[in-house]
Amino acid sequence: MENFSFVNPVKIIFGKGQIVSISDEIPEDARVLIVYGGGSIKKNGVYEQVSSALQGFTVYEFGGIPSNPEYSILMKAVALVKQHKINYLLAVGGGSVVDGAKFIAAAAKFVGEPWDILEKKAPVDSAIPIGVVLTLPATGSEMNGGSVVSHAAKHQKRFFVSPYVMPQFSVLDPTTTYSLPPRQIGNGIVDAFTHVMEQYATYPVNAPLQDRMAESILITLIEEGPKSLKNPTDYEVRANLMWCATMALNGMIEVGVPQDWTTHMIGHELTALHGLDHAQTLAIVLPAVLQIKAKQKHEKLLQYAERVWGIKNGSDENRIATAIAKTREFFESVGVPTHLSAYKLSFKDVESIPDRLIEQGMAQLGERQDTNKPVVIDILKACI
């Protein structure tokens, strides 16, 4: 096992009816900005619960954060924060809203051009505190310090990570997910599954606890994912799905092990260029990465095949190929297509991605830093 340092200070408040408790977590004198997305929280009762819990606080609102949080929109929120001297952010929504709130929190205190936080990795040394009411299980952003933001004018999608934007608390009430459309639930399942695979499908370092924790999340997603689509108001199923998505990217399974993230880096470029949902890009790219990098990931893919999919017979190559096929089938089964052609895209539409990655300093990707331009091209061809 590799050396590691682990801290996660986020307080999780889990369960039905827990939104009321946010008033206990926010300072009494806080000037709170509620940030949210397209307004679904005003239709499903979440907004009413949040408003009731915040009675007595000075509260402002900022809505309209899109599914790929857009820089120009977030900067309007930053201006609002400065205008009204906001000192607390409450993100109410899914991962995009939480990611957007993290950027707002950092940008409001940043000296200089805020896009530098993302493009130039300018250090974040302070941020406005954040609380979260999660309504979509997917990204795990409710329990980590990462944020991904898009810049439409530049056709870019970038990320930053800072301990200063870790939420102080996150409320996870599974009932808030009941009204989500199937597309968003399917995307969330794929997102969480791929987060685990980026940290798991690498090479062995004798970290059996992390491996089995990762495998347990994958197996639970496989078991509960289809149920969550079939029975949207099954509380226990939605609770299991929500906790899986949080555990997939809160740092627990990544400690002491190598990580890949090639799928995400290529996926970000697909979104930046063609506007695909984040999870759609992951469903396209992950099976291709596993296929092209099967030799380098040989031992862990065999373990994945046996422990997650129960594949024990046949040659090593056949077992790995079957596990990859099972992964693709699973993504398709929850409504997320796994080929570029399904989105009417060809290799010509994505051939600029390797050079775009190089421009960002990502000429060598993967857990061994051996996924270079020719390999990325092979991955993209396998995505067709």
Describe this structure in words.
- With 384 residues, the chain is α/β, with parallel strands linked by helices.
- The chain has 2 domains: 11-176, Rossmann fold (3-Layer(aba) Sandwich), CATH 3.40.50.1970; 181-382, Dehydroquinate synthase-like, alpha domain.
- 46% of the residues lie in helices and 11% in strands.
- The chain contains 15 helices and 8 strands.
- The protein has helices at 22-25, 46-53, 71-83, 95-107, 116-119, 182-200, 208-230, 235-247, 262-274, 278-292, 298-309, 316-333, 347-350, 353-359, 373-382, and strands at 11-14, 31-35, 58-62, 88-93, 130-134, 146-151, 156-161, 169-172.
- The protein has a 6-stranded parallel beta sheet, sandwiched between helices.
- Strand 6 and strand 7 form a beta hairpin.
- The model has no long low-confidence stretch (mean pLDDT 97).
Question: Strand fraction band?
Answer: 5-15%
Order of helices and strands: EHEHEHEHHEEEEHHHHHHHHHH
What is the helix content? 40-55%
Overall mean pLDDT score? 97
Largest pleated sheet: 6 strands, parallel
What's the multimeric state? single chain
Low-confidence stretches: none
The tally of beta strands, per DSSP, is 8
Q: Termini, distance in Å?
A: 37 Å
Tell me the name of the CATH homologous superfamily of the largest domain: Dehydroquinate synthase-like - alpha domain
What is the CATH topology of the largest domain?
Dehydroquinate synthase-like, alpha domain
Q: How many domains in all? A: 2
CATH domain class of the largest domain: Mainly Alpha
Strand order of the largest sheet: 1-8-5-4-2-3
